[in-house]
User: Which sequence fits this backbone?
Protein backbone atom coordinates (compact mmCIF):
# COMPACT_ATOMS: atom_id res chain seq x y z
CA UNK A 1 0.00 0.00 0.00
CA UNK A 2 1.54 3.36 -0.97
CA UNK A 3 2.21 5.45 2.10
CA UNK A 4 0.58 8.85 2.23
CA UNK A 5 2.93 10.37 4.76
CA UNK A 6 6.69 10.78 4.51
CA UNK A 7 8.97 7.91 5.50
CA UNK A 8 10.40 8.39 8.99
CA UNK A 9 13.91 9.83 9.17
CA UNK A 10 16.17 6.96 8.28
CA UNK A 11 18.70 5.46 10.66
CA UNK A 12 20.44 3.79 7.72
CA UNK A 13 24.20 3.88 8.19
CA UNK A 14 26.80 4.77 5.57
CA UNK A 15 27.75 2.30 2.82
CA UNK A 16 30.62 -0.15 3.13
CA UNK A 17 32.65 1.77 0.52
CA UNK A 18 35.37 2.42 3.06
CA UNK A 19 36.44 -1.24 3.01
CA UNK A 20 39.29 -0.71 0.59
CA UNK A 21 43.03 0.00 0.78
CA UNK A 22 44.62 1.40 2.84
CA UNK A 23 42.10 -0.15 5.21
CA UNK A 24 41.91 -3.83 6.22
CA UNK A 25 39.95 -6.08 8.58
CA UNK A 26 41.11 -4.50 11.85
CA UNK A 27 40.00 -1.12 10.52
CA UNK A 28 36.57 -2.53 9.63
CA UNK A 29 36.09 -3.73 13.21
CA UNK A 30 37.14 -0.35 14.59
CA UNK A 31 34.84 1.46 12.14
CA UNK A 32 31.90 -0.70 13.22
CA UNK A 33 32.66 -0.06 16.90
CA UNK A 34 32.77 3.72 16.38
CA UNK A 35 29.58 3.71 14.29
CA UNK A 36 27.78 1.67 16.93
CA UNK A 37 28.93 4.11 19.61
CA UNK A 38 27.65 6.99 17.49
CA UNK A 39 24.32 5.25 16.98
CA UNK A 40 23.76 4.24 20.60
CA UNK A 41 25.38 6.96 22.71
CA UNK A 42 25.58 10.09 20.57
CA UNK A 43 22.83 10.25 17.98
CA UNK A 44 19.94 10.05 20.46
CA UNK A 45 21.26 13.20 22.21
CA UNK A 46 22.59 15.44 19.48
CA UNK A 47 19.41 17.57 19.15
CA UNK A 48 19.65 18.45 22.81
CA UNK A 49 23.39 19.22 22.54
CA UNK A 50 22.86 21.36 19.47
CA UNK A 51 20.27 23.40 21.39
CA UNK A 52 22.59 23.70 24.39
CA UNK A 53 25.38 24.88 22.03
CA UNK A 54 27.74 22.29 23.50
CA UNK A 55 27.98 18.60 24.21
CA UNK A 56 28.71 17.40 27.76
CA UNK A 57 32.34 17.56 28.77
CA UNK A 58 32.03 13.99 30.03
CA UNK A 59 31.94 12.88 26.41
CA UNK A 60 35.71 13.39 26.22
CA UNK A 61 36.14 11.06 29.18
CA UNK A 62 33.79 8.50 27.68
CA UNK A 63 35.66 8.63 24.36
CA UNK A 64 38.93 8.34 26.31
CA UNK A 65 37.64 5.33 28.23
CA UNK A 66 36.76 3.62 24.93
CA UNK A 67 40.26 4.34 23.62
CA UNK A 68 39.16 6.67 20.79
CA UNK A 69 41.26 9.66 21.90
CA UNK A 70 44.54 7.77 21.77
CA UNK A 71 44.16 5.53 18.73
CA UNK A 72 47.43 6.61 17.11
CA UNK A 73 49.44 7.22 20.27
CA UNK A 74 51.84 4.77 21.96
CA UNK A 75 50.67 2.56 24.79
CA UNK A 76 53.33 4.09 27.07
CA UNK A 77 51.34 7.34 27.13
CA UNK A 78 47.99 5.59 27.52
CA UNK A 79 47.25 5.33 23.79
CA UNK A 80 46.13 2.32 21.79
CA UNK A 81 49.44 1.86 19.95
CA UNK A 82 47.85 2.30 16.51
CA UNK A 83 48.80 4.68 13.74
CA UNK A 84 47.41 7.39 11.47
CA UNK A 85 45.14 4.88 9.71
CA UNK A 86 43.27 4.16 12.94
CA UNK A 87 42.75 7.87 13.44
CA UNK A 88 41.59 8.12 9.83
CA UNK A 89 38.89 5.52 10.56
CA UNK A 90 37.77 7.63 13.53
CA UNK A 91 37.53 10.76 11.36
CA UNK A 92 35.50 9.06 8.63
CA UNK A 93 33.17 7.20 11.02
CA UNK A 94 32.41 10.07 13.40
CA UNK A 95 29.93 11.92 11.13
CA UNK A 96 27.59 8.98 11.83
CA UNK A 97 26.82 10.76 15.14
CA UNK A 98 24.69 13.20 13.12
CA UNK A 99 26.30 16.40 14.43
CA UNK A 100 29.23 18.15 12.80
CA UNK A 101 29.71 20.03 16.07
CA UNK A 102 30.27 16.87 18.10
CA UNK A 103 32.63 15.52 15.42
CA UNK A 104 34.47 18.86 15.37
CA UNK A 105 34.84 19.12 19.16
CA UNK A 106 36.18 15.58 19.55
CA UNK A 107 38.08 15.81 16.26
CA UNK A 108 39.89 19.06 17.12
CA UNK A 109 41.11 17.44 20.34
CA UNK A 110 42.42 14.26 18.67
CA UNK A 111 43.21 15.56 15.20
CA UNK A 112 44.80 19.00 15.49
CA UNK A 113 45.53 19.90 19.12
CA UNK A 114 47.24 16.80 20.53
CA UNK A 115 49.31 15.76 17.46
CA UNK A 116 51.84 18.64 17.83
CA UNK A 117 52.36 17.66 21.49
CA UNK A 118 53.07 14.09 20.42
CA UNK A 119 55.22 15.03 17.43
CA UNK A 120 57.22 17.92 18.85
CA UNK A 121 56.84 17.58 22.64
CA UNK A 122 59.47 16.41 25.11
CA UNK A 123 58.87 13.27 27.15
CA UNK A 124 57.93 15.49 30.09
CA UNK A 125 55.42 17.45 27.97
CA UNK A 126 53.85 14.24 26.69
CA UNK A 127 53.55 12.94 30.23
CA UNK A 128 52.03 16.18 31.50
CA UNK A 129 49.76 17.19 28.60
CA UNK A 130 49.24 14.22 26.28
CA UNK A 131 48.49 11.51 28.82
CA UNK A 132 45.49 13.31 30.44
CA UNK A 133 44.28 14.37 26.99
CA UNK A 134 44.23 10.74 25.83
CA UNK A 135 42.18 9.86 28.91
CA UNK A 136 39.80 12.72 28.14
CA UNK A 137 40.45 14.28 31.53
CA UNK A 138 41.85 17.40 29.89
CA UNK A 139 40.53 19.12 26.76
CA UNK A 140 42.89 20.55 24.14
CA UNK A 141 42.56 23.20 21.46
CA UNK A 142 44.81 24.55 18.73
CA UNK A 143 45.18 28.33 18.45
CA UNK A 144 46.57 29.64 15.19
CA UNK A 145 43.93 32.02 13.76
CA UNK A 146 43.69 35.59 15.09
CA UNK A 147 41.18 38.37 14.49
CA UNK A 148 43.59 39.85 11.93
CA UNK A 149 45.37 36.70 10.68
CA UNK A 150 43.70 33.64 9.18
CA UNK A 151 44.97 32.49 5.79
CA UNK A 152 47.99 34.75 6.21
CA UNK A 153 49.58 32.83 9.07
CA UNK A 154 52.81 34.85 8.93
CA UNK A 155 50.95 37.96 10.07
CA UNK A 156 50.16 36.52 13.51
CA UNK A 157 50.51 39.29 16.11
CA UNK A 158 50.30 37.49 19.45
CA UNK A 159 53.72 38.14 20.89
CA UNK A 160 55.70 36.15 23.43
CA UNK A 161 58.41 38.32 24.92
CA UNK A 162 61.33 36.43 26.41
CA UNK A 163 61.64 36.97 30.15
CA UNK A 164 63.68 35.20 32.78
CA UNK A 165 62.48 31.56 32.92
CA UNK A 166 59.80 31.91 30.29
CA UNK A 167 57.68 34.23 28.14
CA UNK A 168 55.20 37.03 28.61
CA UNK A 169 52.35 36.57 26.13
CA UNK A 170 50.03 39.30 24.85
CA UNK A 171 47.50 39.01 22.04
CA UNK A 172 44.36 37.16 21.00
CA UNK A 173 43.07 34.17 19.05
CA UNK A 174 39.89 33.82 17.03
CA UNK A 175 37.51 30.99 16.02
CA UNK A 176 39.16 28.44 18.32
CA UNK A 177 37.33 25.09 18.40
CA UNK A 178 37.03 23.85 22.02
CA UNK A 179 38.38 27.27 23.05
CA UNK A 180 35.72 27.89 25.71
CA UNK A 181 36.54 24.85 27.81
CA UNK A 182 40.03 23.85 26.70
CA UNK A 183 42.42 23.20 29.57
CA UNK A 184 45.42 23.51 27.23
CA UNK A 185 45.85 25.68 24.17
CA UNK A 186 48.60 24.74 21.73
CA UNK A 187 49.19 28.31 20.67
CA UNK A 188 51.11 29.91 17.79
CA UNK A 189 52.96 33.05 18.89
CA UNK A 190 55.55 35.39 17.48
CA UNK A 191 58.87 35.18 19.31
CA UNK A 192 60.72 37.38 16.87
CA UNK A 193 58.98 40.48 15.53
CA UNK A 194 61.37 40.78 12.59
CA UNK A 195 61.20 37.21 11.37
CA UNK A 196 57.90 36.93 9.40
CA UNK A 197 57.02 33.25 9.44
CA UNK A 198 60.55 32.47 10.63
CA UNK A 199 59.70 34.15 13.94
CA UNK A 200 56.84 31.83 14.92
CA UNK A 201 56.92 29.47 17.90
CA UNK A 202 54.44 27.31 19.81
CA UNK A 203 53.66 27.60 23.50
CA UNK A 204 51.25 25.51 25.52
CA UNK A 205 49.01 27.93 27.40
CA UNK A 206 47.02 26.67 30.37
CA UNK A 207 43.60 28.06 31.14
CA UNK A 208 44.32 28.82 34.80
CA UNK A 209 47.30 31.04 33.92
CA UNK A 210 46.66 34.62 35.05
CA UNK A 211 45.71 36.88 32.12
CA UNK A 212 44.32 34.03 29.96
CA UNK A 213 40.70 34.83 29.21
CA UNK A 214 37.86 33.43 27.11
CA UNK A 215 36.78 36.71 25.53
CA UNK A 216 33.65 35.25 23.98
CA UNK A 217 31.76 32.15 22.90
CA UNK A 218 30.88 32.67 19.24
CA UNK A 219 27.47 32.06 17.62
CA UNK A 220 27.78 30.17 14.34
CA UNK A 221 25.86 29.03 11.25
CA UNK A 222 26.56 25.36 12.04
CA UNK A 223 28.69 23.13 14.26
CA UNK A 224 26.30 24.21 17.01
CA UNK A 225 27.25 21.49 19.46
CA UNK A 226 30.91 22.56 19.44
CA UNK A 227 32.21 25.56 21.31
CA UNK A 228 34.12 28.16 19.33
CA UNK A 229 35.90 30.94 21.19
CA UNK A 230 37.73 34.17 20.95
CA UNK A 231 40.59 34.16 23.46
CA UNK A 232 42.67 37.00 24.84
CA UNK A 233 46.01 37.05 26.62
CA UNK A 234 47.19 39.93 28.79
CA UNK A 235 50.68 39.49 30.24
CA UNK A 236 50.26 35.71 30.50
CA UNK A 237 53.41 34.24 32.03
CA UNK A 238 54.31 30.96 30.36
CA UNK A 239 57.29 28.97 31.66
CA UNK A 240 60.10 27.79 29.36
CA UNK A 241 59.02 24.16 29.81
CA UNK A 242 55.81 24.97 27.88
CA UNK A 243 57.72 25.82 24.69
CA UNK A 244 56.74 23.17 22.12
CA UNK A 245 59.48 22.33 19.64
CA UNK A 246 62.22 24.83 18.85
CA UNK A 247 61.88 28.56 19.22
CA UNK A 248 61.24 30.33 15.88
CA UNK A 249 60.58 26.97 14.14
CA UNK A 250 56.80 27.08 14.62
CA UNK A 251 56.01 27.61 10.94
CA UNK A 252 57.27 24.10 10.19
CA UNK A 253 55.01 22.76 12.96
CA UNK A 254 51.99 24.60 11.50
CA UNK A 255 52.64 23.24 8.01
CA UNK A 256 53.17 19.68 9.28
CA UNK A 257 49.91 19.88 11.22
CA UNK A 258 47.96 21.31 8.26
CA UNK A 259 48.50 18.20 6.11
CA UNK A 260 46.94 15.96 8.73
CA UNK A 261 44.14 18.42 9.51
CA UNK A 262 43.24 18.66 5.81
CA UNK A 263 43.27 14.89 5.45
CA UNK A 264 41.01 14.52 8.47
CA UNK A 265 38.62 17.11 7.05
CA UNK A 266 38.57 15.21 3.75
CA UNK A 267 37.82 11.95 5.56
CA UNK A 268 35.07 13.65 7.55
CA UNK A 269 33.53 14.99 4.33
CA UNK A 270 33.62 11.53 2.75
CA UNK A 271 31.86 10.11 5.84
CA UNK A 272 29.23 12.86 5.76
CA UNK A 273 28.56 12.46 2.01
CA UNK A 274 28.29 8.69 2.36
CA UNK A 275 25.80 8.99 5.21
CA UNK A 276 23.65 11.59 3.45
CA UNK A 277 23.43 9.48 0.27
CA UNK A 278 22.57 6.29 2.21
CA UNK A 279 19.79 8.04 4.15
CA UNK A 280 18.43 9.72 1.05
CA UNK A 281 18.45 6.48 -0.94
CA UNK A 282 16.31 4.81 1.73
CA UNK A 283 13.96 7.80 1.63
CA UNK A 284 13.71 7.84 -2.18
CA UNK A 285 12.80 4.16 -2.26
CA UNK A 286 9.89 4.76 0.10
CA UNK A 287 8.54 8.23 -0.55
CA UNK A 288 5.62 8.14 -2.98
CA UNK A 289 4.57 10.79 -5.48
CA UNK A 290 2.30 10.37 -8.50
CA UNK A 291 1.74 6.75 -7.47
CA UNK A 292 5.38 5.64 -7.44
CA UNK A 293 8.51 5.83 -5.33
CA UNK A 294 10.30 9.09 -6.13
CA UNK A 295 13.55 7.16 -6.64
CA UNK A 296 12.06 5.60 -9.77
CA UNK A 297 11.83 8.97 -11.55
CA UNK A 298 14.69 9.15 -14.00
CA UNK A 299 15.73 12.64 -12.84
CA UNK A 300 16.09 11.42 -9.26
CA UNK A 301 17.83 8.22 -10.35
CA UNK A 302 20.36 10.33 -12.25
CA UNK A 303 20.95 12.54 -9.24
CA UNK A 304 21.95 9.41 -7.31
CA UNK A 305 24.24 8.31 -10.12
CA UNK A 306 25.99 11.68 -9.97
CA UNK A 307 26.20 11.75 -6.19
CA UNK A 308 27.62 8.23 -6.06
CA UNK A 309 30.24 9.25 -8.63
CA UNK A 310 31.15 12.30 -6.55
CA UNK A 311 31.46 10.14 -3.43
CA UNK A 312 33.67 7.70 -5.30
CA UNK A 313 35.91 10.52 -6.54
CA UNK A 314 36.15 12.17 -3.11
CA UNK A 315 36.93 8.86 -1.42
CA UNK A 316 39.46 7.80 -4.05
CA UNK A 317 41.33 11.11 -3.84
CA UNK A 318 41.28 11.09 -0.05
CA UNK A 319 42.42 7.50 0.31
CA UNK A 320 45.18 8.04 -2.25
CA UNK A 321 46.42 11.06 -0.27
CA UNK A 322 46.13 9.07 2.96
CA UNK A 323 48.12 6.11 1.57
CA UNK A 324 50.91 8.46 0.48
CA UNK A 325 50.90 10.45 3.72
CA UNK A 326 50.93 7.24 5.77
CA UNK A 327 53.76 5.88 3.60
CA UNK A 328 55.91 8.90 4.47
CA UNK A 329 55.72 10.61 1.06
CA UNK A 330 55.38 14.36 0.62
CA UNK A 331 51.64 14.26 -0.15
CA UNK A 332 51.04 18.01 -0.15
CA UNK A 333 49.50 18.10 -3.65
CA UNK A 334 47.31 15.05 -3.07
CA UNK A 335 46.13 16.26 0.34
CA UNK A 336 45.40 19.73 -1.05
CA UNK A 337 43.37 18.34 -3.97
CA UNK A 338 41.44 16.02 -1.65
CA UNK A 339 40.61 18.89 0.73
CA UNK A 340 39.58 21.21 -2.13
CA UNK A 341 37.40 18.61 -3.84
CA UNK A 342 35.79 16.91 -0.85
CA UNK A 343 34.66 20.00 1.07
CA UNK A 344 32.73 21.57 -1.79
CA UNK A 345 31.46 18.11 -2.79
CA UNK A 346 29.99 17.64 0.69
CA UNK A 347 28.09 20.94 0.48
CA UNK A 348 26.77 20.15 -3.01
CA UNK A 349 25.79 16.53 -2.36
CA UNK A 350 24.11 17.23 0.98
CA UNK A 351 22.17 20.07 -0.64
CA UNK A 352 21.02 17.67 -3.37
CA UNK A 353 20.01 15.10 -0.71
CA UNK A 354 17.99 17.81 1.04
CA UNK A 355 16.30 18.63 -2.28
CA UNK A 356 15.35 14.98 -2.80
CA UNK A 357 13.64 15.07 0.60
CA UNK A 358 11.47 17.99 -0.55
CA UNK A 359 9.95 19.99 2.31
CA UNK A 360 10.92 17.29 4.79
CA UNK A 361 14.56 17.97 3.97
CA UNK A 362 14.10 21.49 5.29
CA UNK A 363 12.84 20.10 8.61
CA UNK A 364 15.19 19.54 11.47
CA UNK A 365 13.96 16.01 12.15
CA UNK A 366 15.61 14.62 9.01
CA UNK A 367 19.06 15.95 9.90
CA UNK A 368 19.93 17.27 6.44
CA UNK A 369 19.52 20.97 7.14
CA UNK A 370 22.01 20.55 9.97
CA UNK A 371 24.35 18.48 7.81
CA UNK A 372 24.27 21.22 5.17
CA UNK A 373 24.99 23.99 7.68
CA UNK A 374 27.78 21.91 9.20
CA UNK A 375 29.32 21.09 5.83
CA UNK A 376 29.54 24.77 4.88
CA UNK A 377 32.53 25.22 7.19
CA UNK A 378 34.57 22.79 5.08
CA UNK A 379 35.55 25.19 2.26
CA UNK A 380 36.65 27.76 4.92
CA UNK A 381 38.27 25.93 7.86
CA UNK A 382 41.76 24.42 7.82
CA UNK A 383 42.68 26.57 4.81
CA UNK A 384 40.08 28.02 2.45
CA UNK A 385 39.31 26.76 -1.05
CA UNK A 386 41.12 29.80 -2.44
CA UNK A 387 44.23 29.00 -0.42
CA UNK A 388 44.09 25.37 -1.65
CA UNK A 389 43.93 26.67 -5.22
CA UNK A 390 46.91 28.96 -4.56
CA UNK A 391 48.96 25.98 -3.33
CA UNK A 392 48.04 23.89 -6.38
CA UNK A 393 48.36 26.75 -8.87
CA UNK A 394 51.80 27.77 -7.63
CA UNK A 395 53.02 24.19 -7.96
CA UNK A 396 52.35 24.56 -11.68
CA UNK A 397 54.88 27.40 -11.74
CA UNK A 398 52.24 30.13 -12.08
C1 LIG B 1 33.80 27.20 13.09
C2 LIG B 1 35.26 27.49 12.91
C3 LIG B 1 36.19 26.76 13.65
C4 LIG B 1 37.56 27.06 13.54
N1 LIG B 1 38.46 26.40 14.35
C5 LIG B 1 39.76 26.84 14.38
C6 LIG B 1 40.68 26.31 15.36
O1 LIG B 1 40.34 25.42 16.15
N2 LIG B 1 41.92 26.83 15.39
C7 LIG B 1 42.35 27.82 14.54
O2 LIG B 1 43.50 28.24 14.63
N3 LIG B 1 41.50 28.31 13.59
C8 LIG B 1 40.22 27.87 13.51
N4 LIG B 1 39.35 28.38 12.56
C9 LIG B 1 39.83 29.42 11.66
C10 LIG B 1 39.91 28.99 10.19
O3 LIG B 1 40.98 28.12 9.98
C11 LIG B 1 40.00 30.30 9.39
O4 LIG B 1 38.71 30.91 9.44
C12 LIG B 1 40.43 30.10 7.97
O5 LIG B 1 41.78 29.68 7.91
C13 LIG B 1 40.28 31.39 7.12
O6 LIG B 1 40.86 32.50 7.75
P1 LIG B 1 40.00 33.85 7.93
O7 LIG B 1 38.68 33.46 8.49
O8 LIG B 1 40.82 34.81 8.69
O9 LIG B 1 39.77 34.38 6.45
P2 LIG B 1 40.75 35.32 5.61
O10 LIG B 1 42.11 34.74 5.62
O11 LIG B 1 40.58 36.71 6.06
O12 LIG B 1 40.12 35.15 4.17
C14 LIG B 1 38.96 35.86 3.73
C15 LIG B 1 38.71 35.51 2.26
O13 LIG B 1 39.85 35.92 1.48
C16 LIG B 1 40.35 34.82 0.76
N5 LIG B 1 41.82 34.90 0.65
C17 LIG B 1 42.72 35.07 1.63
N6 LIG B 1 43.97 35.03 1.12
C18 LIG B 1 43.84 34.81 -0.19
C19 LIG B 1 44.77 34.67 -1.27
N7 LIG B 1 46.09 34.70 -1.07
N8 LIG B 1 44.27 34.48 -2.52
C20 LIG B 1 42.94 34.40 -2.74
N9 LIG B 1 42.02 34.54 -1.77
C21 LIG B 1 42.46 34.74 -0.51
C22 LIG B 1 39.94 33.60 1.58
O14 LIG B 1 39.93 32.43 0.77
C23 LIG B 1 38.55 34.00 2.05
O15 LIG B 1 37.61 33.75 1.05
C24 LIG B 1 37.99 28.06 12.63
C25 LIG B 1 37.04 28.76 11.86
C26 LIG B 1 35.71 28.50 12.01
C27 LIG B 1 34.73 29.31 11.21
Assistant:
Amino acid sequence: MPSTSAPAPSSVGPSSGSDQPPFGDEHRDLRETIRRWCELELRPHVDEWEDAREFPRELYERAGELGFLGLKYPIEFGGQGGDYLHDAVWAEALPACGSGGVAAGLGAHTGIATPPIFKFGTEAQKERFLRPAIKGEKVCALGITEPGAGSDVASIRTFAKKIDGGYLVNGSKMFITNGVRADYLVCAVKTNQEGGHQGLSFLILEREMAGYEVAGKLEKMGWHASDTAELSFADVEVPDENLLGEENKGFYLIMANFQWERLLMSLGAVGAIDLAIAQTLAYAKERQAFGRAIGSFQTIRHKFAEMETTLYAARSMTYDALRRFHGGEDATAEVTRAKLFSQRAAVDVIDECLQIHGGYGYMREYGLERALRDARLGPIGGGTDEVMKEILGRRLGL
About this structure: Residues 252-395 form a domain with the Butyryl-CoA Dehydrogenase, subunit A; domain 3 fold (CATH 1.20.140.10). Residues 108, 141-145, 150-151, 175-177, 220, 223, 228, 377, 380-384, 386-387, 390 surround flavin-adenine dinucleotide (CB under 6 Å). The chain has three domains: 25-138, 142-249, 252-395. The chain has eleven helices and ten strands.
